Amino acid sequence: MTQRKTTSKTTSKTTGKTTSKATKSKKKPRKKATDKAPRQKAEPALARALRVDHAGEYGAQRIYEGQLAALEKSGAADAETLATVREMLEQEREHLEAFNQLLHQERVRPTALQPAWHIGGWLLGATTGLLGAKAAMACTIAVEEVIEGHYADQVEALEKSATGSPALRQKLARFAEEEAAHRETARASGGEEATGYPALRFAIRGITKAAIRLSERV
Ligand SMILES: [Fe+2]
Ligand SMILES: [Fe+2]
User: Can you give the pTM of this predicted structure?
Assistant: First the structure.
């Protein structure tokens, strides 16, 4: 009984309160420095650029896959057109692989919208493919025009940047040339002769631009 009173007195002199020990035990443990270390290696601007480029190439691959599925199923395209679409799809897969590696290297996460582009890209390709070979080519013209412009903007930004990677700039410039070649192939294959071409081009350009803006943010 006497001992308990002494302990209580000592605590009271130190803190002015009788619960000093209880207050101490409620303090949250400090976080270790390693808990706060960012996973992402790239600067935010570079991470954003790589994320949107990866999303674009992923979407492009899905568009060509959708086109190919629809054109093969409907029999609306001749062997030469099918070979052309397969060739463009192969090149998109190479572009996508390059960004897969860059994302891994720079520890950048892909867009959270990838599942949407998986379905949306395929549907866009399949829908235009079902409208016919020329509509599929019209879709290619519209998408590639936007993507080519997007890469050109990034190349220009890297040229102006003091810290921009020359290797990345060269890679993007090469991809822009290949996207432009896809656009020209689609023009030569009669894309501009598709029924309702101006409206189709306008709508698909709008969809592509919106997808780019969303992939930059999410
Ligand atoms: Fe591409
Ligand atoms: Fe392309």
Answer: 0.77
